[in-house]
Design goal:
Keywords: ATP-binding, Nucleotide-binding. By secondary structure, this protein is an alpha/beta fold. It has nine helices and twelve strands. The protein has a six-stranded mixed β-sheet, with helices on both faces. Strands 2-1-4-5 form a four-stranded antiparallel β-sheet, covered by helices on one side. Helix 4 packs across helix 5. It starts with a strand and ends with a strand. The model has no long low-confidence stretch (mean pLDDT 92). The protein binds adenosine-5'-triphosphate.
Length: 257
């Protein structure tokens, strides 16, 4: 269970609070999409939930344990984070990079057990990265690297997986495939998967639950169906040029454009 308990996130002055007093609970096995326009606060929220940024107030609890107070080793075992930044991995082959996902569990020598190796193998297959497992990570395309980082997170077998705009470099079939595999991973392992995305259509089709940031500091939480029907999606994304149609379930150009 992930619980946001009166959580406020943001920065010092001048930007200050981005999202305030969040109260949300997520059960195991949920695939949650975090949606909102540019600057709404998706990355700020996900960084805070990953323990990479201090909260301005309140707590984020994973299985009742405050994420901010976890020892780095504990956090590394329980939370996997995938960001769009490219980690430089000079000289490392893809399977070495994915094996790093097991590092929080290996002893001080970092030796992989047969179980660790099996998890790495399965993760590479799941993420569709098996065919380039022996290549150098730094030689891969952006989309291929993104799959490797997903494989590393899967190999880590975390309770919470946080992925920030990771589908940005993937082509359309790749995005569908990756989001579907993350949802299946959540269901199969009981992990909570939190993914921010600008892929509104796909997210609304695949998410168990959506966290919709309205860009004014508000957060609406619900199933895609309820958020669409209640007009939250339109309020968060409509502009003079495009409008979300709840009946069609997609954006249309506004009449005057
Ligand atoms: N390091 C920072 N210091 C101060 N303010 C920041 C910092 N990073 C982001 N912000 C501000 O916080 C707000 C939320 O930014 P954030 O990056 O979380 O939005 P986002 O929803 O992830 O946007 P995008 O879709 O463009 O990636 C914005 O107003 C942004 O300018």
């Amino acid at each position: 269970m992930l619980r946001l308990n009166d959580l406020s996130v943001g920065y010092g002055a001048p930007r200050g609070t981005v999202l305030a007093h969040l109260e949300v609970e997520v059960g195991p096995g949920s695939f949650v999409c975090v949606l909102g326009r540019n600057g709404a606060g998706k990355s700020t929220l996900l960084r805070t939930l990953s323990g990479l940024q201090a909260a301005l107030g309140g707590h984020a609890l994973l299985e009742a344990e405050d994420i901010a107070a976890m020892r780095p080793q504990t956090r590394a075992r329980r939370i996997a984070v995938v960001l769009t930044e490219r980690p430089a991995s000079p000289g490392l082959a893809v399977d070495d990079v994915v094996s790093l996902g097991r590092q929080p569990f290996t002893g001080w020598q970092g030796r992989l057990t047969a179980d660790d190796r099996a998890r790495v193998h399965t993760a590479l297959e799941m993420a569709g990265a098996q065919s380039f497992a022996t290549r150098l990570f730094d030689d891969l395309s952006d989309g291929e690297r993104q799959r490797v980082m997903i494989a590393r997170a899967v190999a880590q077998s975390p309770q919470l997986m946080v992925l920030d705009e990771i589908t940005a470099f993937l082509d359309l079939p790749g995005r569908v495939e990756v989001m579907a595999l993350l949802r299946a991973h959540a269901r199969r392992t009981g992990a909570i998967v939190l993914l921010s995305s600008h892929d509104l259509d796909l997210s609304l089709q695949l998410a168990d639950s959506v966290w919709l940031l309205d860009g004014r500091g508000g957060l609406a939480v619900g199933t895609p169906e309820t958020l669409i029907a209640d007009g939250h999606v339109g309020r968060a994304f409509d502009t003079n040029a495009v409008r979300f149609s709840p009946t069609l379930g997609r954006f249309d150009l506004a009449a005057q454009v």
